[in-house]
Design a protein that fits this description.
single chain; 224 residues; alpha+beta; 4-stranded mixed sheet; globular
Length: 224
């Protein structure tokens, strides 16, 4: 039995969605973030030394990291579904977007979250002006321009095809959903400014498997 070690408000929501798309049976073991720190509970370290989610256990095999989990499930259970045939241009695009999601798209969004928290965190009055000035400067000179670059790039790519790997929905779209949701939540994604990504977001929300995954995992808000 596949067990998804599911942390609320996390990347593990994508794993539930993939399993629903594949029509596989699975069990959800839930973990809750600390309400003060938003960190995962220490119990997750019993599953994987890093104590983070997502983690999947399957017949004695433990797989961590979103991209690795997607590849594992597609290779073991996909039976040709949700991945283009090997050796095709679509497969190269599939592989690229599968890794781009965490390797390139998420870091600027995470940095924005970190510096937003620094800017708004309680601190001694004599430190506050310096800390907030540094946070704003880093965001304005590096973080926000990087987010803008990635938003423009993804929107231009989605203008070429309805899905990231081409004309067909694949597991790369499931992997890309997290940065897209993150951009909608805190990166300036709107229908007016990013019409292709906005339309893409509506399409994934309309998928029955996506809705089932949200029902199974619970409503979520992007945290990290």
């Amino acid at each position: 039995m596949i067990v998804v070690h599911h942390l609320n408000n996390s990347r593990s929501q994508r794993v539930l969605w993939l399993l629903e798309e594949l029509g596989l049976d699975y069990e959800v073991k839930r973990y809750e973030r600390d309400p003060k720190t938003a960190l995962a509970p220490p119990e997750l370290r019993a599953v994987h030394p890093l104590g983070k989610s997502p983690v999947v256990t399957d017949d004695g095999v433990t797989v961590a990291e979103s991209g690795a989990i997607v590849e594992y499930l597609i290779e073991r259970y996909g039976e040709g579904r949700l991945a283009p045939p090997a050796g095709t241009p679509e497969r190269r695009r599939f592989t690229y977007w599968l890794h781009y999601a965490e390797g390139s798209a998420m870091p600027p969004l995470l940095l924005k979250l970190v510096f937003d928290r620094v800017e708004n965190a309680p601190m001694p009055f004599f430190v506050r002006p310096v800390a907030r000035s540094i946070a704003r400067r880093v965001k304005q000179t590096f973080v926000l321009p990087q987010i803008e670059t990635h938003l423009s790039y993804m929107d231009a790519e989605l203008a070429k095809s309805p899905w990231f790997a081409g004309s067909e929905f694949t597991a790369a779209d499931i992997q890309m959903s997290f940065p897209i949701e993150g951009a909608a939540a805190r990166g300036g994604l709107t229908e007016a400014t990013r019409p292709h990504r906005w339309s893409y977001l509506q399409r994934i929300h309309e998928r029955p498997a996506y809705r089932r995954a949200v029902e199974r995992g619970g409503p979520y808000e992007i945290v990290r």
